[in-house]
Amino acid sequence: MADQDIKRITAPFDDTTARSLRAGDRVLISGTLLAARDAAHKRMVESLEKGEALPVDLRGAVVYYVGPSPARPGQIIGAAGPTTSGRMDAYTPQLLQQGLKGMIGKGYRSAEVGEALRRYEAPYLAAIGGAGALVARSIKKYTVLAYADLGPEALAALEVEDFPAIVVMDVEGGNYYEMGQQPFNRL
User: 122: how many CB neighbours lie within 10 A of its CB?
Assistant: First the structure.
């Protein structure tokens, strides 16, 4: 694909951006992502179940499933490769209901999450697994927002520039993983 085939988008996502993305689109994201993994997701959902406010406003937010390694001297962040997304599936529908507008991780999602992505019009994107040092280059600032006691699994803000990702599941129900397997299913 030529460089003109790469979409440049901004996070947080507005409705137009979320709806415009299609399975298979390559994107470069600039703006602010939230960083959170399993433990932070669990705490957020527990707060919602108790009727408590979340520590951040999720409306339009895009969460990157990451637990970065410690930064080396002079660096903003250590390796920041994606975490397996399925570990967040139990929490995802409730957070989408709060306005979450996109997720970035790696791997398959459950049918329940796929339905929630369509209902709440939020895409799921994949980052480059195994290339955490490469992905970290696009992160310009890392700020812990909540749950600091969780260390690398804390809820944090990431200021990113040209963060590379591929749209895996779109708001129309398109699934890039399934599309990629179709030619081989005919063999």
Answer: 28
Structure tokens at 184: 């081989």
Distance CA 73, CA 116 (A): 41
Q: Which amino acid is at 137?
A: R
Q: Tell me which residue has tokens 């890039």.
A: 176
DSSP code, position 11: E
C-alpha 135: how far from chain center: 13
Which residues, other chains included, contact 21 with Cβ-Cβ below 8 Å and sequence gap of 6+?
A: 7, 9, 27, 123, 125, 167, 170, 171
Please tell me the pTM assigned to this model: 0.93
Contacts of 116 (CB under 8 A, 6+ apart): 92, 93, 96, 122
Q: What is the pLDDT of residues 9-27, one digit of tens each?
A: 999 999 999 999 999 999 9
Cα gap 101→124, rounded to integer Å: 9
Torsion sign over Cα 33, 34, 35, 38? negative
